[in-house]
Amino acid sequence: METGTIPHTELDGGINCYLTIESGQTYRWTRSDGELYAGSRAPEAWYELAIDGEVVRVRSTDDGLEWESTTDAEPILRRRLRLDDDLPAIVADAPDDTLVEDAYATHRGLRLVTDPPFDTLIAFICSAQMRVERINEMVTTLATEYGTQIEFDGRTYHDFPTPDQLAAATESELRDLGLGYRAPYVVETARMVADGEGHPADARDLPYEEAREYLTRFVGVGEKVADCICLFALEFDEAVPLDTWIRKAIATYYPDCDHGSYAKTSRAIRERFGGTYAGYAQTYVFHHLRTGEATVD
Question: Which of 7, 28, 215, 258 places its Cα 20 to 30 Å from the Cα of 61?
Fold first, then answer.
């Protein structure tokens, strides 16, 4: 086992693991006490991730970000939890807007994540009309049933399945695992990626709106899910997924940004949220509203 700590002094703006991992942007983690997305903080609990054949555990301490792993986890954590982002500079770039300012002030240390594109694609196909805790259960179940096992510290972890592994599943099997009507979307999308018809990572080098359009070729992916993939896997920090909470925010706080179509409304709220880091503002506002820190109609 390898261990280490990334000091607070190396993290501009710090990091709050609870806010970052349990804010509805990533579904690849589990928590050692089994209480992920239960709405409670547990400073002693480890957040655990099996990825690319490795296992990483991480938690916040008074000294910094403590980790245990099968490998040197610092590069993994710096990428997955975006530890090199300058949070104070991002907050300073925010627009003069009461809701955004309140969200930033209330949830200090929340960082965007960068998850693998295929994992994110499947996770957000599963997200339709689902609570965050249920999405995490689905993603964890897919890993347990179809992913590669990794042994670490006397326990068995499961990596997320590769496109080939998931494409071998049947619609019936996935329905039995609780995916419901999403089952055929997951199977067909995994098959598309496995057969080389496309890969979500291919969108990374496109201009943002073209990337969003490219992602809608996958079965079960509309514009909102495509925006989630852009923001949480491909680092398009300007992306603003128009989910239920952001649409409620638009109705209550920014009615002039509602232009009917997804594309026009997205452009308007993106500009209102500051453009370059609009996705950061969206993630803070989403969590702010979902946790009841602010009110919407």
Answer: 28
Say how far apart CA 167 and CA 189 lie, in whole Å.
Answer: 8
Collect all residues with Cβ–Cβ distance below 8 Å to 6 and sequence separation of at least 6.
Answer: 64, 65, 67, 74, 77, 78, 83
Q: Of 250, 244, 275, which is closest to residue 265 (Cα–Cα)?
A: 250
Asked if residue 76 lies in contact with residue 54, where contact means CB atoms within 8 angstroms, the answer is yes
How many C-beta atoms surround the C-beta of residue 33 within 10 A? 12
24: alpha, beta or left? (left if phi > 0; alpha if psi -120 to 50) = left
Q: Are strands 149-152 and 47-51 parallel, antiparallel or unpaired?
A: unpaired
pLDDT of residue 104: 96
HSE (CB half, 13 Å, CA atoms) of 276? 7
pLDDT tens digits for range 148-191: 999 999 999 999 999 999 999 999 999 999 999 999 999 999 99
Please tell me the distance from the alpha carbon of residue 95 to that of residue 199, in angstroms, as a whole number: 34
Residues 55, 63: Cα–Cα separation, whole Å: 22
With H, G, I as helix, E, B as strand and everything else as coil, classify residue 224: helix
Spatial distance between the Cα atoms of 151 and 86, rounded to a whole number of angstroms: 35
Determine the 3-state secondary structure of 5 from DSSP: strand
Angle between helices 223-232 and 117-125 (to 10 degrees): 150
C-alpha to C-alpha distance for 222 and 204, rounded to whole angstroms: 17
Question: If you write DSSP's letter for every residue of 203-267 in order, what string do you get?
Answer: GGGS-HHHHHHHHTTSTT--HHHHHHHHHHTS--TT-----HHHHHHHHHH-GGG--SSHHHHHH
Backbone angles phi, psi at 18, to 5 degrees: -60, -50
- Residue 21's identity, in one-letter code, is I
